[in-house]
Amino acid sequence: MPSSISLHSLSAIAYGFRYRAPLKHTSLFYSHQLQHNSFQRQTSPTLPLFSSSFCRVPNPSFFTGNSLFFRMEHFWSGSGVNRNKGMIEQLQRYGVIKSQKVTEIMETVDRGLFVPEGTPAYVDSPMSIGYNATISAPHMHAMCLELLEDRLQPGMHALDVGSGTGYLTACFALMVGPQGRAVGVEHIPELVAWSIKNVEKSAAAPLLKEGSLSLHVGDGRKGWPEHAPYDAIHVGAAAADVPQDLIDQLKPGGRMVIPVGTFFQDLKVIDKKLDGSISTRSETSVRYVPLTSREAQIKGT
């Protein structure tokens, strides 16, 4: 039997595993209850939307037709309502989002504009965006925004490493405003081009046009020195070790949120004190794709 992790509530997610991307060759799907390593399909309208299990699924046909995954997507999204707002309300209901500011920003930046067409944008799941990259699950975006909120005030500078589809960079830009600076760095040129198109359709479009939001092709491990130092740095892939360039580009008083580790990973919160010293704490266990070179990522190694 495959090993699995059962998360029966948002409180469990808050203290257990938070997934941006499933393990290589691993599929992610939802189940209300796990008993003896068998998944019980639930159809109750009271099903907790965040109750989930992560395991290896040998049969890809599970994701077709009337599978639980797509029934969950339908249940999550609802009908006749703003689905992005519904997603946020669920994140609030289960205690993931507590900040009014984060609520406002996530309501303003529609996640549906930043995912591949035809994919279930409002399900709390990471999803592939091509090139062996993913977009994080909504609860991970919400958690990172809350961890960085104090360093995303108007006029501040923010760096998003591994900016992918541009979603979190757009959120940063709206939080720091036109007097601030939000920079996304992504080493896949096709993703950068796509992310710019995504932002142009979003509420952050004026900031992109005015230049306070910018998206660049580059090796995010080296940061983006042009607009350093940064009050907030977010890294969307797991580093074996924290890149020194990113620590150097973090402003005294600033904060970095970065997953660290190889197979076993922790989301680290790194604060640079005003005297330049560094403090680090682990927020939670996670599973992200690796922070690596463009060539290695494309090869999937």
TrEMBL record:
One Pfam family here: PCMT
SUPFAM superfamilies in UniProt: S-adenosyl-L-methionine-dependent methyltransferases
EC number annotated for this UniProt entry: 2.1.1.77
Keyword annotations: Methyltransferase, S-adenosyl-L-methionine, Transferase
UniProt cross-references to Gene3D superfamilies, sorted A to Z: Vaccinia Virus protein VP39
Catalytic activity from the UniProt record: [protein]-L-isoaspartate + S-adenosyl-L-methionine = [protein]-L-isoaspartate alpha-methyl ester + S-adenosyl-L-homocysteine
Family, as annotated: Belongs to the methyltransferase superfamily. L-isoaspartyl/D-aspartyl protein methyltransferase family.
Protein name: Protein-L-isoaspartate O-methyltransferase
Organism, scientific name: Datura stramonium
Organism classification: Eukaryota, Viridiplantae, Streptophyta, Embryophyta, Tracheophyta
